[in-house]
Design goal:
By secondary structure, this protein is α+β, with helices and mostly antiparallel strands. The protein folds into five domains: 320 residues, Transferase(Phosphotransferase) domain 1 (Transferase(Phosphotransferase), domain 1, Orthogonal Bundle), CATH 1.10.510.10; 94 residues, Trypsin Inhibitor V, Chain A (2-Layer Sandwich); 63 residues, 2-Layer Sandwich (Trypsin Inhibitor V, Chain A); 63 residues, Trypsin Inhibitor V, Chain A, CATH 3.30.10.20; 58 residues, Trypsin Inhibitor V, Chain A (2-Layer Sandwich), CATH 3.30.10.20. The strands form nine sheets. A six-stranded antiparallel beta sheet has the order 1-2-3-4-6-5, with helices on one face. Strands 9-11-10 form a three-stranded mixed beta sheet, with helices on one face. Strand 1 and strand 2 form a beta hairpin.
Length: 640
């Protein structure tokens, strides 16, 4: 694939116009694109030439694996925490996958930009990712490539797992370059111990990789990482994750979920339940530092450099690990924050309600005294409060509460009052608003039609946010099956994400062997949640009670609960013996064949006319019954 930008502006398979390159790795390049048929932005991932082997036979095998993996990914991606795969195929630019454009960027983008997540933010991201993994695992599949660059965010900051198709295709491809690079570079940093040993991966391997990504989001470093990949692998196989008592309940949960023995780790569902329990011990998270705008992969200087150099973004992340930690330490030390003089300038305008500069001068001149006056903090900002605590010698007690009619960060009150003399070491208490009172999400949304749920939310000042759809075995189409929010209380005028049922998953009519008994056919169909409608027809080839065919035909996709017609043999059809008297034997044989009967025994001369038949004429008999004939005796034979 060209790296000179020649793809920009090209239209992929007559539908996807490539707008700009937003990411590059060893295996693929990602483009922001415009879907001309749907009039919306999408992300297009093109497979790099580096993983394409020489020889068309091998290439054809890879194409088949890639398209099969993309189809599987599309089937699995109907979940609010999995990036939806919309299209895939082969083009003159190479193999590609089209997915939703995630406008919030990636977890890797946040880390590369120097943003570490708080425990509350990490928990929220982890819960979304665990729910996505649980869905993938319920389909009998694994992701196999969980890392920060594959954890993407919607505009509202909800996490979704990405890159199913590419990871599955490359994992199954018998390609030397792809396998060696994948095992030695990309996978090692977030690989599970069993992956490092070359063992078969399972659903708990995904859990381990997710734990490492979440730990990096908290601390800025990937556990066990070193300059020697072999040393990293050995450490994972022999050591447990140790967060040195940090991060409380969340840290202990991650340590348990990151154990080297896979049998000791929880499932994705177990991890999700543990995260929900830990949420009770943590404050509400502030919004995530999304790294868009509007790009599935962050457009940072480091990412751009990686793309230009052909370097995988995760490699850049490793080099940036020390920088992340430095930025965090710098923030914790307060380096670069506004000085105390900024607080004085703000306080001068409101001190005791007095006239501007005079009040400021009075307070400022008295700051060196034993009991300088307390400023009026009504207009103070967060930086001002930090400066007050560090430079005044007073102890700042900060109390937070919610109050309608206020905005987050607004000062609600203080003790002592402005102008009161306060000695060094004494306490000044400040009440700070967390914003207006939270609104409780209505508890009865699950089970409502989407329009009814929208009305219920509107009644409390909320609205519907993102609506994801998924098949549900117990809910009809269009009914809300889940409220996809971490907390049951949200900010006023917030939007609430919902999951709506597509109804039960469609069924595929099974292949029922002709000649099977009706009982066997019924068992197969009812096991799939399908009803049976019996229809009997005469069949001259099958005995009564045997299956002739099913309708719709095997392989057809039908709604759950549909009635499948099983055509059952009622036995041979009935025909009537034709009148044969006065005919010759040969003519009688032809007449019998015409109605599906056969000639039986002939009593009497073969060259004489027929007197009667057995069964008699006009008698109803089974198809293919043989009819005996009685012919007229020759003269001289009667009575003889």
């Amino acid at each position: 694939m060209s790296k000179e930008g020649g793809e920009i502006g090209r239209v992929l398979n007559g539908r996807y116009r490539l707008i700009t390159r937003i990411g590059a790795g060893r295996f693929s390049s990602v483009y922001l694109a415009y879907d001309l048929s749907q009039s919306r932005r999408v992300a297009v991932k093109l497979l790099s030439e580096e993983v394409m082997p020489d020889g068309w036979a091998q290439k054809a095998a890879l194409v088949g694996r890639f398209l099969e993996a993309a189809e599987k990914a599309a089937a699995v991606s109907s979940h609010p925490h999995v990036v939806a795969v919309r299209s895939w195929g082969d083009s003159d630019l190479g193999l590609y996958v089209v997915s939703d454009c995630m406008e919030g960027g990636s977890l890797l983008g946040m880390l590369e930009a120097g943003h570490l997540l708080s425990p509350s933010q990490t928990l929220m991201v982890g819960l979304d990712a665990a729910r996505g993994l649980e869905h993938i695992h319920r389909q009998g599949m694994i992701h196999g490539d969980i890392r920060p660059s594959n954890i993407l965010f919607s505009r509202r900051g909800r996490a979704r797992l990405a890159d199913l198709a590419t990871s599955w295709a490359l994992a199954s491809a018998e390609i030397g370059i792809a396998r060696s690079v994948f095992s030695s570079v990309d996978a090692v940093r977030y690989a599970s111990p069993e992956q490092a040993q070359g063992l078969t991966l399972d659903h708990k391997s995904d859990v381990y990789s997710l734990v490492l990504a979440l730990t990096e989001a908290l601390s800025g470093r990937v556990p066990f990482e070193s300059d020697d990949p072999e040393h990293t692998q050995m450490a994972k196989m022999s050591r447990e994750l140790d967060l040195a008592g940090q991060f409380g309940h969340l840290g202990r949960l991650l340590e348990r979920a990151g154990r080297p023995e896979r049998d000791d780790r929880p499932t994705a569902r177990g991890l999700g339940l543990g995260l929900l329990a830990a949420a009770e011990t943590l404050p509400r998270p502030v919004p995530l530092p999304l790294t868009g705008p509007g790009l599935g992969i962050p457009d940072t200087g480091e990412s751009a450099a990686a793309a230009a150099a052909g370097e995988h973004p995760d490699e850049m992340a490793a080099k940036a690990g020390g920088q992340r930690a430095f930025r965090r330490d710098r923030a914790a030390s307060g380096e670069g924050r506004p000085g105390f003089r900024r607080l004085l300038a703000a306080a001068a305008l409101v001190l005791l309600g007095a006239a501007g500069f005079g009040a400021f001068a009075l307070w400022n001149s008295g700051f060196g005294a034993d009991t300088p006056p307390v400023p009026d903090l009504a207009e103070a900002g967060e930086a001002d409060l930090l400066a007050l605590a560090s430079e005044s010698g007073w102890v700042l007690e900060r109390l937070e509460q919610r109050q309608d009619g206020t905005v987050a960060g607004q000062i609600l009150g203080q003790t002592p009052r402005a102008g009161t003399g306060l000695k060094r070491g004494e306490t000044i208490t400040v009440w700070v608003s967390l914003g207006p009172e939270l609104v409780v999400i209505p508890a009865d949304l699950a089970g409502l039609a989407l329009e009814d749920a929208e009305a219920s939310l509107a009644a409390v000042g909320l609205s519907v946010g993102e609506v994801a759809e998924r098949f549900d075995p117990t809910a009809i189409q269009g009914v809300v099956v889940e409220v996809d929010e971490l907390f049951f209380e949200v900010e006023p005028r917030s939007s609430v994400d919902l999951v709506v049922s597509l109804g039960p998953e469609p069924r595929v009519v099974p292949d029922i062997d002709t000649g099977s008994s009706l009982a066997v056919a019924r068992e197969q169909l009812e096991a799939l949640g399908l009803a049976v409608l019996e229809w009997q027809l005469p069949d001259n080839a099958l005995e009564a009670g045997r299956v002739v065919r099913v309708e719709p035909l095997p392989g057809s996709e039908v709604a759950a609960g549909s009635a499948i017609t099983v055509v059952v043999s009622a036995g041979p059809e009935q025909v009537r013996v034709p009148p044969l008297a006065t005919l010759g034997v040969e003519d009688a044989s032809s007449a019998l064949e015409q109605v599906g009967l056969c000639l039986g025994e002939v009593e009497g001369p073969l060259d004489s006319e027929i007197l009667a038949s057995n069964p008699p004429a006009d008698t109803a008999v089974d198809f293919a019954t043989c009819v005996d004939l009685i012919t007229r005796p020759q003269e001289g034979q009667e009575g003889g």
